[in-house]
Amino acid sequence: xxxxxxxxxxxxxxxxxxxxxxxxxxxxxxxxxxxxxxxxxxxxxxxxxxxxxxxxxxxxxxxxxxxxxxxxxxxxxxxxxxxxxxxxxxxxxxxxxxxxxxxxxxxxxxxxxxxxxxxxxxxxxxxxxxxxxxxxxxxxxxxxxxxxxxxxxxxxxxxxxxxxxxx
Length: 167
Known about the structure:
Blueprint: H1 2-19, E1 37-39, E2 46-48, E3 57-62, H2 67-83, E4 89-94, H3 102-108, E5 115-116, H4 120-125, E6 133-137, E7 143-148, H5 153-166
Parallel strand pairs: 3-4, 4-5
Antiparallel strand pairs: 1-2, 3-6, 6-7
């Protein structure tokens, strides 16, 4: 009986530790998203945070090797089709260590929004640990919501409606 109790207590303690892991990105809600400028693959243009100001925007951290990230592209395409005319902007920030594979994935998946490369230092500085990770920014560049993991377009729709109701 004592042995079972010990195993149960170890299990509960381990569950407690995992369950208490904090998502650092939630601390950013209500604060300005950091300034950034990352080169677009194969071009001389850059993706910059300042280009997002003036309308709601979604900043999406992703990588070419992340299956969930690539699955989410279709959801983001739908979101942009529904809200692009209203001013929604989306940018993808690749955390791939080498930008070589990014242009191929952008082309292969017909990613309809600007993509910047070399965003790993920003990803790390924000304390992020998993992909995809998205931030909904208001028109002033402040973080309105953080999305940890892949989400359906409907979740982004709801967050956009909530953001618009506050403006």
